[in-house]
Write a structure and sequence with these properties.
Length: 333
C-alpha cells in the first residue's frame, strides 16, 4: 500500500511517500527555522503562509523521488491535530484535495502518534507493546503503547513541555532559535553541577512532570546575575539545565516501565535528539535491563515519514476520515 503523507503542524513543511508504512520511498522536509529565527520563535501566520507556498511543490518532489506515478497512490494522509491550527489546516486541506482528486481514502493522523511511529520507521523489528517517552516542543508525556493505535497516557507534564523550556532558556542565554540544538551544543563540556536547579515532584501522580519552575529558576538566575553585573557560566548553566530535565524524564520513564511490566522503551520527539537525554536514557535502560529504541536525529524532529507510517496502521484499523474532517490545535492522543 502506497501512502502520500503531509505534515505541517508547526514550522516544517514535510511530505513523504511510504510503502506499507515502514518502507519510506521519499521524505522531503522544508524547514522554516531561518524565517522565524529573527523573532526568536515560531510566528504562526508566517508558518501558515510558508506552508501554502511550499506544500504542492514539495508533494510533487516527493512523488518524483519515490519513483511512482500519481495513479499508484492508494491513500493520502495528513496531520490533523495537535499543532498551530493555521499550519495544520494547510496540510490537511492539501491532503483533502489530493485524496479527492485521486479518488483514494483520506487518513487523519494524530501528530504525537506519528512521533511514536518514527521508531517503527527506524526499527523494522519493533512492535507493541512498549513504553514511549514523547518529548517535544509542545508535549511531554509517557505512554504505554499496547497496540499500533492503542495507547494509555501514564504521566504527562502539568504545565510546560520540556522542549518549550529548552527554547525559552536558550533565548534568555542569547542563543539562536531553535534553542534546543543550541543549548545542547553550549552544554558540551559544561559542569552539570555548577548550578543547583529544581526537580519537581507532582502530587497525585508520581509519573506526572512539571517544568515551569525549572524554566523560571533559570530565567531568574540569569536576570539576577545581569542586574548584579555578575558573569554567568553559560556552558555550566546549559549543562545543569539539561541534567535537570533529563532527571525528571528518565526517572519517570523507568518507573513507568516497571509499573506496566514492559522491557522495551522508545523515545521520540524533538527533545529525543538531546545528547544528555539520549545518554542518560541509554544508561538507565542498561542498568535496568531494558531495550532502548531511539530513532536517528532526522526522525526526532517533525517529518512526514512518521505520519505516513502511522497512517498505514490507522488504515489497517479502519480509521479513515471523511473529507469534512476538521483540524484541531489540541487533542488527546
Amino acid at each position: 500500500m502506497i501512502i502520500l503523507a503531509v505534515e505541517s503542524s508547526c514550522d516544517e513543511t514535510a511530505v513523504s511517500v511510504s510503502r506499507d508504512g515502514r518502507t519510506i520511498l521519499s521524505d522531503e522536509v522544508l524547514s522554516q527555522a531561518d524565517l522565524h529565527a529573527v523573532y526568536g520563535g515560531v510566528v504562526p501566520e508566517i508558518a501558515s503562509r510558508k506552508h501554502i507556498e511550499s506544500v504542492a511543490a514539495l508533494a510533487e518532489m516527493a512523488v518524483k523521488k519515490a519513483g511512482i506515478s500519481r495513479s499508484e497512490i492508494n491513500a493520502v494522509a495528513a496531520t490533523y491535530a495537535p499543532g498551530l491550527i493555521g499550519a495544520v489546516l494547510v496540510g490537511l486541506s492539501f491532503a483533502k484535495g489530493a485524496a479527492y482528486a485521486l479518488g483514494v481514502p483520506l487518513i487523519a493522523v494524530h501528530h504525537m502518534r506519528g512521533h511514536i511511529a518514527a521508531n517503527y520507521v527506524a526499527f523494522p523489528e519493533l512492535e507493541p507493546p512498549f513504553i514511549a517517552l514523547v518529548v517535544s516542543g509542545g508535549h511531554s508525556f509517557i505512554a504505554d503503547v499496547t497496540g499500533y493505535t492503542e495507547m494509555r497516557i501514564m504521566g504527562t507534564t502539568r504545565d510546560d513541555a520540556a522542549g518549550e523550556c529548552f527554547d525559552k532558556c536558550a533565548r534568555v542565554l542569547g542563543l539562536p532559535y531553535p534553542g534546543g540544538a543550541a543549548m545542547d551544543k553550549l552544554s558540551q563540556g559544561g559542569n552539570d553541577k555548577k548550578y543547583l536547579l529544581p526537580r519537581a515532584n507532582v502530587a497525585g501522580n508520581r509519573l506526572d512532570m512539571s517544568f515551569s519552575g525549572l524554566k523560571t529558576a533559570v530565567i531568574n538566575l540569569v536576570h539576577n546575575a545581569e542586574q548584579k553585573g555578575e558573569e554567568i557560566d553559560r556552558p555550566g548553566l546549559a549543562a545543569s539545565f539539561a541534567a535537570a530535565v533529563s532527571d525528571e524524564l528518565i526517572s519517570r520513564t523507568m518507573d513507568a516501565a516497571a509499573q506496566a511490566g514492559r522491557d522495551r522503551i522508545c523515545v521520540c520527539g524533538g527533545v529525543a535528539a538531546n545528547s544528555r537525554v539520549r545518554k542518560d536514557l541509554a544508561d538507565a535502560c542498561r542498568k535496568n535491563g531494558y531495550t532502548l529504541f531511539a530513532p536517528p536525529l532526522k526522525l526526532c524532529g517533525d517529518n512526514a515519514a512518521m505520519i505516513a507510517c502511522q497512517a498505514y496502521y490507522e488504515y489497517l484499523a479502519g480509521n479513515t476520515a471523511e473529507l469534512d474532517v476538521n483540524g484541531f490545535a489540541n487533542m488527546e492522543i
